[in-house]
Every structure is written in C-alpha cells, then in structure tokens.
Amino acid sequence: MAKSEIKIFLDSNVIISGLISDKSAPRLILDLLCHELPLMQAATGQYNLEEIERTINRKLPTAYPVFRVEQRGQIFNL
C-alpha cells in the first residue's frame, strides 16, 4: 500500500507565531516542516503571504527588510 503525502496548510497566524516564538505549537510545526520529511508538504496562499508581509511591517518593522529579502529567495514559497 502506497503512503500518501500529507499537505499541511499554514495560515498566516501559524507562520508568524512560529517565527516569533521558540516554544509553541506553531514553531514545532515549522521545525518539522523544515526537515523536509518525505510525507509532509507545506502549503499556503498568496493572500496569507500578503497578510504576513503587512503584519511584519506593522508589528516588527525592523524585521521587514529581512522578510523582503527572504521572500525573494523563495523561503516562503511553500
């Protein structure tokens, strides 16, 4: 029996919470996905990426330039 891939949709809240907290459930999810396990795939949408950008710009303005550089590098192309 073939194993099916689990696609995990990440909303903006999970991504932002996971980035700013080192001991939270969202952080654990992001950490697991960073290991590129063969049966788990992350997904998000363009609207979520735009919401993350607005939130970082508003609440973490010093991190915004880093976010822009990383976004161009496809880091958030989940």
Summarize this structure briefly.
This protein has 78 residues and is mainly alpha-helical.
From the structure above, extract its key features:
78 residues
Explain what this protein looks like in three dimensions.
This protein is mainly alpha-helical. The protein has one domain. Helices cover 54% and strands 10% of the residues. It has helices at residues 12-20, 25-34, 46-59, 64-72; strands spanning 6-9, 40-43. Strands 1-2 form a two-stranded parallel ribbon. α1 (12-20) packs across α2 (25-34).
What's the Cα radius of gyration? 13 Å
The low-confidence parts are none
**Count of separate structural domains:** 1
Average of pLDDT? 81
Strand content: 5-15%
| Amount of helix | 40-55%
Count of extended strands:
2
Distance between the ends? 27 Å
Largest sheet: 2 strands, parallel
Strand order of the largest sheet: 1-2
Order of helices and strands: EHHEHH
Question: Counting H and I runs of at least 4 residues, what is the number of helices?
Answer: 4
Shape: globular
Secondary structural class: mainly alpha
